[in-house]
Amino acid sequence: MNPLRAYDIHIAGLDNKRYEYDFTSDYAFFAALEQELIQKGNIQTHLLLDKSETMIRLDFHITGTVEQTCDRSLDEYDEPIDTRQTMLLKFGDHNEELSDEIELIERNTPTINVARYIFEFIGLSLPMKRLHPRFRDEEEDYADDDTQNGRVIYRSDPESANDDDNQPDTTDPRWAALRRLNNN
């Protein structure tokens, strides 16, 4: 049996009102999606489905942890997930993704599967730089240092400034000829 079938919601017979669903995602969920981003995790999803004549509004609240590999040390760690996302499914003549938050679905669609939305929202909530929690304190320390937060500091040593004053002013003769033409 396909573990993603548990994420099917039969919308054909639903009245126009609000419904609540709870899903638990574990290893079988991530393995069934055939992807490389997340291998293991324990995720709880609370879904509010609000059906009307013209659309379905899906409000997701996703919490839990997923196992990630640290980019620096290659150690595995649990990344906490806590995100709220909204998806709008508008009824239309054909299926089409209008934007990241809005999709058209055919009016006679009997079921929708929310597994793809849950996985996409989990992926969006993960940080770009995967750091083990023991390294995150170090990153914050670097951010406080003026040399690491994007500012470039120029310094001139008084000794090197004096050295420049002692050297004779040497001008390229071609520039000198151009200056004479300009002075005329």
UniProtKB/TrEMBL annotation:
It comes from Spirosoma profusum. Residues 139-174 are annotated as: Disordered. This is DUF177 domain-containing protein. InterPro entries: YceD. Pfam families: YceD (PF02620). The lineage of its organism: Bacteria, Pseudomonadati, Bacteroidota, Cytophagia, Cytophagales.
